[in-house]
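Async update (no meeting this week)

Hi team, since we skipped the sync, here's where things stand on the single-chain job. The sequence we agreed to prioritize is pasted below, unchanged from the tracker. I ran it this morning and attached the output directly underneath so nobody has to dig for it. Comments welcome in thread, and please keep replies under the output.
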Amino acid sequence: KQHPGLAARRALPLVTTMIGQPGPAGLLTDGPVPEPVLDERVQLNESRLAQVAAAIARFPGTTPHNFVTEALPPVNHPAALDYFFAATLQQFSFWYAEDNHYDQPMYGTINGKRYKGSEYLWMAFWRHQAVNPGFGAPAGQAALTESTLRDLMRADDGSDLLPALDLHLEQARAYGQDMLALGLTPQAIIAEASASERPLQTFLARLDQIGGYKEDPLRKKSNLLAIILNQRPEGFLPFAAGEDVSPVMDYHAMRACLRVGLVEVVDEALRTSLITRSIISPADEWAVRLACYRAYEQLVSRSGKRYGAVGWFLFSSMRRYCLEMSLPDCAHCHLETVCAQRRELFQPILRTAFY
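Output:
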């Protein structure tokens, strides 16, 4: 079951069929519902998809990440669920802009250790949660103030790091307010999902009603939270046989698609915007992001692997060998033999709370 926004986009070809001929004959078919047509400015590279999928199929894989680190709650901590629900929706927009261009990623130091954006937020939120037990609960998030958020995110030197503090505050409050309005808690959502025949589907459908998660038609943060709760040692969220998350489509995933050559940008203006790291329009960003999402779906289907293996295969390369501000280290990357090495390309730049 898809996010309502993506399902609506998928239904558009059916609407066209319905109004283009009399009667329902065009809808009476046993075939699958057609996927939305990609923007003509981007296209999937079929041969590259086949090569990368084959490489993933051969890859021995890794032990799934259990999301137990110094920046995250200890196993069986009573605040773990409140924390993960509140902090995962904040996993977005860890970069700075200058003159309508991407400038640099966010880094900060907590307790003498330097963290990159996502890890910094995990650590800052856990540091605050550990001494403020009600912070991550829906009521605590609904009542979150700008001064509290600003203070909890400060680095050791007192610097105010969040590039989009207003968006983070808005997301926290929306989450808390929706949870309170629906009479929900993280514990209740987990209980509801676990009691259903399709726990993952039930879980994602519920998050489609909750601020901070419901807005993104590709459910990046919802799928990330599902992965965390499934792979934590507590096993908060079981998956039924055959259930799997959809691609977690963030900027690392898109950078992978573009540089590896899974997605081709055939429009020169859009390609130039990506190369120059210019801030682009939501329509331009969606064109690239949806194509990358489809590419990841194809990799899962063609490789025969679950999304976790596919996502990690590319994500680990991007975070280790193909970062934002340094030259790619292609020689040591496990993608080297199947990668187009389009080093000049960059992920779409748009300030969004989706990722």
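Quick observations from my side:
The two ends are 21 Å apart (CA to CA).
Strands lie at 42-44, 95-98, 101-105, 107-110, 113-116, 263-265.
Reply here if anything looks off.
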